[in-house]
Structures are given as structure tokens and as C-alpha cells.
Amino acid sequence: MARFYEMLVERNKVMNLTTITEPEEAARLHFVDSLMLLRFLPLEEDGITLADIGTGAGFPGIPLKILRPRLHVTLVDSLAKRLSFLEEVIEALGLREEGFIETAHGRAEDLAGKRGAMRERFDIATARAVAALPVLSELCLPFVKTGGTFVAYKTDTAEAEVADAKRALLELGGRTRAVEHYSLPHSDVSRSLIFIDKTDKTPAKYPRQAGTPAKKPL
Questions:
Q1: Rounded Cα gap, residues 53 and 126, in angstroms
Q2: Residues linked to residue 182 through DSSP beta bridges, in sequence order
Q3: What is the pTM of this model?
Q4: What residue ranges define each of the domains in the chain, with the CATH number in brackets?
Q5: Tens of pLDDT along 64-94?
Q6: pLDDT tens-digit profile of 121-136?
Q7: Exposed/middle/buried for 115, CB within 10 Å: 0-12, 13-18, 19+?
Q8: Burial of 112 from C-beta contacts in 10 A (0-12 / 13-18 / 19+)
Q9: Based on the number of CB atoms within 10 Å of its own CB, is 39 exposed (0-12), middle (13-18) or buried (19 or more)?
């Protein structure tokens, strides 16, 4: 974890990876927040496949992989420079030694589209992106197998987002299983995890072409 943090801060000097660089804040807001998933979903079985959609600087995918080395992780992002940095992190930390990890360059709408190679391939998809839940659901649920789960990292207003996403989830083959709230240590910051089960295949017309989910949410 410390080595990843050091690499993140160093690379952040020449490219925009994060605005959170102070050690305690980074530990709390990036690392601990990423790992809170394990409180509710231990991910201890071998070979679970997880796609981290819009991984950015590698959260939550890299911390989860560090603590669960046998987890099969795919880090998805639309910016090649970010993924180049994450490939360096993967090699420096030896994250391929115990289990599979890869990076995937492209937009979610293309990678999990009707003919996308990653469509309905994963047990779990995660996203910490700042986007409304109807948008995130259209981008992320197509990555998930029927019977799998999409987990959205959100603020403490998650219930309102779930209500707004009800129609979208019905259309996309998802159903909200639970909203779990937690507080980050030594702070007044509250967060939530929204667990959405993939109950049916996502219709082939979703996700719509790049940019449309954000412009015209379901």
C-alpha cells in the first residue's frame, strides 16, 4: 500500500491522477474507502472476476487486489496514460504473481457494448465515478454476468439515487439488494455502497453509444 502511494504521489507531479495527496487523507479517502467493500463482500473465494470501471488512479481495484491477491481484476479506463501508470504499479508490486490482473483501455460503452469483448464477463463490477446512479448502472451492469453484482461507491445520499435509478435498473436487468452505510475513520466523512444484483441479461441495445448515457440518462 505504501509503495503504491509513493508511486501515485510521484507520478501525480507530472499528470493529474488525484487531488488528494496528503498521507492521512489519501489513506482514509482512497485506500480505506476502497477497502470498505470487504466488510460487506469478503471476496475470499479463488478466481472471482472483478471489473473496476473508470478506475482512474487505480481505486478501488489496486487496493482490493493487494489484500485479495487471488482476485481476478480488470482495471478499465478511457485514458491510456492512466493505464500506463497502473501497469507500472502492477509490475512494481508484483501483483501478477498470485492471480490475474489486467488493464483495459476504452470507453465502457464500447467494451461492454453489444459486440464488446467484456460484455457480461464479470462476477462483480465496481465504480467510484462521480456520476448519477442511472448513468453508472447503464455503463457498469453490461459488464456483469447474470447472477453477479454491481457495486457503486457513493456518498451518504445513496437512497435518493436508488429511487432515481429504479426505472433504469428495471430496464437494464438489475435490482438493488442493499445500501450499506459507513463512516471513514478519524473523520466526519460518511459513505455508502450500493449493491445491485444482475437478475437478467441486459438488453442488447444497452449501453447506448458513447456519451449518450450521461446526456440522456434512463
A1: 6
A2: 191
A3: 0.95
A4: 2-215 (3.40.50.150)
A5: 999 999 999 999 999 999 999 999 999 999 9
A6: 999 999 997 799 999 9
A7: exposed
A8: buried
A9: exposed
